[in-house]
UniProtKB/TrEMBL annotation:
PANTHER family: OS01G0750732 PROTEIN, RECEPTOR-LIKE SERINE_THREONINE-PROTEIN KINASE ALE2. Keywords: ATP-binding, Kinase, Nucleotide-binding, Serine/threonine-protein kinase, Transferase. InterPro entries: Kinase-like_dom_sf, Prot_kinase_dom, Ser-Thr/Tyr_kinase_cat_dom, Ser/Thr_kinase_AS. It comes from Vanilla planifolia (Vanilla). This is non-specific serine/threonine protein kinase.
Length: 204
């Protein structure tokens, strides 16, 4: 990696996210984990193991990892247009309202990402932290679900749930968590449409 631009960073639960430039000039996002206790390591291992086996156009792509001493980095494709949260309620709110088409694209993309995680991926996965701030946006508003630090595997063949990754919750609890995630998707979509109705009525 050639350089990491320190002026472009976001503080996260276990460290910071930097904007980096690779030797070939490509831009990446680098999540630098600084916390050295067990939970930071567990988050790192969980996120790496999970992401390396998942491939979907609505999931953020993990390009690589770096471990040096006690420092751990996750290198992601750069998703440069903020998050759904920042566009609806935060720093990007004043950039201009999201069009109906963009909002539809976000709702569909997020639903496809969760359907892939719950039904089609191998292993099946429950994200467990699905929310507007963890849905990043490309310039054309293609959504990318990110931040897999709390994710857990669901099982392969049926809706039976295993606890192979972190292993502290029982089957029923994880099945319930999966159902809750579907409800969170509904709330996410309601948030998108409600914000739209609000801005539309102000526009007219
Ligand atoms: N791939 C990425 N591209 C661009 N920005 C990112 C990327 N990943 C994270 N970020 C930025 O860092 C913030 C926090 O990242 P996240 O992985 O959600 O950390 P946390 O565990 O603190 O929630 C995001 O809201 C976003 O602003
Ligand atoms: Mg997050």
């Amino acid at each position: 990696m050639d350089s990491v631009q320190r002026e472009y960073w976001v503080k996260v639960a276990f460290g910071c996210v930097y904007h980096g430039i690779m030797d070939d000039g490509s831009e990446v996002a680098i999540k630098l984990l600084t916390r050295e206790e067990q939970s930071g390591d567990r988050e790192f291992i969980g996120e790496v193991g999970m992401l390396s086996r998942l491939h979907h156009r609505n999931l953020v792509k993990l390009l690589g990892i770096c471990i040096e001493g006690r420092t751990r980095c996750l290198v992601y494709e750069l998703v440069r247009n903020g998050s759904v949260e920042s566009h609806l309620h935060g720093a990007d709110k004043n950039k201009g309202n999201l069009s109906w088409d963009s909002r539809m694209k976000i709702a569909l993309g997020a639903a496809r990402a969760l359907a892939y995680l719950h039904e089609d991926s191998n292993p099946r996965v429950i994200h467990r932290d699905f929310k507007a701030s963890n849905v990043l946006l490309e310039d054309n508003f293609t959504p990318k679900v990110s931040d897999f630090g709390l994710a857990r595997e669901a099982s392969d063949a049926s809706h039976h749930i295993s606890t192979r990754v972190m292993g502290t919750f029982g089957d029923a609890c994880l099945a319930w968590t999966q159902q809750c995630e579907v409800v969170r998707l509904l709330l996410f979509n309601a948030n998108i449409y409600f914000a739209r109705a609000e801005t539309s009525s102000m526009d007219t």
